Amino acid sequence: MITKKSRHEINLMKTAGSIVAEVHELMKELVKPGVSTLELDEKAEKLIRNNNAIPAFKGYHGFPGSICASVNEQVVHGIPGKDVILKDGDIISVDVGAIYKGLVGDAAITLPVGEITDELKQLLKVTEEALYAGIEQVLAGNRIYETVSAAVEDKANEYGYGIVRNYGGHGIGRNMHEEPFVYNFRPGPPGPELKPGMAICIEPMFNLGVGTVHTESDKWTVVTDDGKPSAHFEHTILVTDSGPLILTQFHNKVK
To answer: Structurally, how many domains does the chain consist of?
Structure first.
């Protein structure tokens, strides 16, 4: 069942989203050659907890980290580690979730490490553009798959990028993953109707090569089948009568 959020729940989600946004700003400062993904994880967890929130990912179905840190061909669910050292030319996708007073904010960003190739710069740019193309379609009355999912797919097709089909966006609120599932391509049917008060995460994942992926032996890290890099961007979006509202950006926090 797709739930609508109350005004109180929305305010709490804004606070959770603001905390996620703060973590991403911190990551932009910290991500550089020589830094381990474990250090990023520890700094992120400290910031989340200092804001009286809980890392949404830590312990979720047994996940060991506070963030997902996915490097290069890793698409999602990369486990932070002290031996995973970033180097010049890498890209890293940092997925962050925070729970504030029972409500969740969730967003992801892919960052360059040092100087990256023009090919990777374009991948990051286009994947982020696809996120915002999807967000523009978060309008009351729209059907998710024929508008939001279609906008994301069209951007990938324009540049010939592989679309990860096994994973996608989702509803969010009191739980990290709620209905509906938000595909990054047209699955066929028009999908559920967007109504004010609904909150969804849109998260395009585009690959330089094929769209197919598999999970590594750690049972978490998802990588591209051809070993080529992948980018991942995500925001939590609220459907309103006046258009989409991004919840995972800076808002006045509810104390």
So the answer is: 1
Residue 99 predicted with pLDDT over 90 = yes
Burial class (CB in 10 A: 0-12, 13-18, 19+), 63: middle
Q: What is the pLDDT of residues 162-218, one digit of tens each?
A: 999 999 999 999 999 999 999 999 999 999 999 999 999 999 999 999 999 999 999
Q: Is residue 2 part of a domain?
A: no
* Single-letter code of the amino acid located at 4: K
User: CB count, 10 Å around CB of 123?
Assistant: 23
The identity of residue 88, as a single letter, is: D
Encode pLDDT of 74-93 as tens digits. Answer: 999 999 999 999 999 999 99
Q: What is the CATH number of the domain that holds 210?
A: 3.90.230.10
Query: What digits encode the pLDDT tens for the residues 115-169?
Result: 999 999 999 999 999 999 999 999 999 999 999 999 999 999 999 999 999 999 9
CA dihedral angle for residue 176, residue 108, residue 243, residue 1, rounded to 10 degrees:
-20
CA atoms of 15 and 120, how far apart (whole Å): 32
Domain that holds residue 202: 7-246
* Residue 220: alpha-carbon gap to chain centroid: 16
Q: Does residue 208 lie in a domain region?
A: yes
CB distance 68 to 77 below 8 Å: yes
Dist CA 45 CA 19 (whole Å): 11
Cβ count near 242 (within 10 Å): 8
